[in-house]
């Protein structure tokens, strides 16, 4: 299989030796600064804004994909099932001026009508949304502590929990860690994602590591389960995953963990002839698909990437995935049920009781 596309930063960092090792000193400085900042928030010396409605943060320890967007969608649906009107606040990384980024566009497609504000200042974005919703889901906000939250859910990708594959944990810029793994201790729950893509003994070792770093914090497990295939030209139609079995395909992705995407396609029985791996949030152009789709081969991509690719590409197919819990779903439900009602919900309940009193 041929791999193509621009060089990805994590691939360079995962290679030991050479100029990369010069990054150890700035990484050590980064770790000290991150630890100091965390301590200032822990002691209350740096303030956090609190809103009069429940705030749920979905985050991780690293730069890169752990499956936050599917988790955000899952939480929104669970909140809606409880009769709440949720909204989403995210940073909007990679978005052009005045536009939503790829993740927001994918969420808008999957969650029609759910308000979504993108603002690098998540506290400001949440304040602007608070009057329109009953709960706010913060995307990628574990380190954004200027806004207090009622539930902190941290995701770890089981295939590379500390950022780089097959290397010890390292802070930015030598590695991909934004915080020490010990920071998991302040989470309300930790969720291991893509647990089906690692061996059972490896998964158990990771569980033991997490429980040692965050004793008493509930540990959830989840998989990213392929749900169907779509043709972007006919988005309302769903096609069976069986159509991939035995088929030779080409992949295009600009996500945090392209290895996991490729593994999912292979597990469905497809043969991968080429995988063009672009950096996360890559702004696709017409040349990025050049040479693909010959011999009537399908070009398979992710739902997040599909919103930026040419929907008229005849050979393009989108692999839609959903997050499914394999352990701990009841714990998450209990945490959601324990969230305090916000002002708008309290007023609606009081009005309802008055009308029926």
Stretches where pLDDT falls below 50 for ≥5 residues?
Answer: none
| CATH H-level homologous superfamily name of the largest domain | P-loop containing nucleotide triphosphate hydrolases
For the residues shown, what is the average pLDDT? Answer: 91
Q: List SSEs in N-to-C order.
A: EHHEHEHEHEEEHEEEHEEHEHH
Helix content: 25-40%
CATH secondary-structure class of the largest domain: Alpha Beta
Number of domains: 2
Could you characterize what this model shows?
Strand 10 (248-253), helix 7 (258-267) and strand 11 form a beta-alpha-beta unit. Strands 1, 2, 3, 4, 5, 6, 7, 8, 9, 10, 11, 12 and 13 form a 13-stranded mixed β-sheet that branches. The protein is an alpha/beta fold. 30% of the residues lie in helices and 23% in strands. It folds into two domains: 46-224 and 324-341, P-loop containing nucleotide triphosphate hydrolases (Rossmann fold, 3-Layer(aba) Sandwich); 226-322, Rossmann fold (3-Layer(aba) Sandwich), CATH 3.40.50. The longest helix has 19 residues, at 24-42. It has helices at 9-14, 24-42, 68-81, 102-110, 122-129, 200-213, 258-267, 303-306, 329-337, 343-356; strands at residues 2-4, 55-60, 86-90, 116-118, 135-139, 151-157, 189-193, 219-231, 234-239, 248-253, 271-277, 298-302, 316-327.
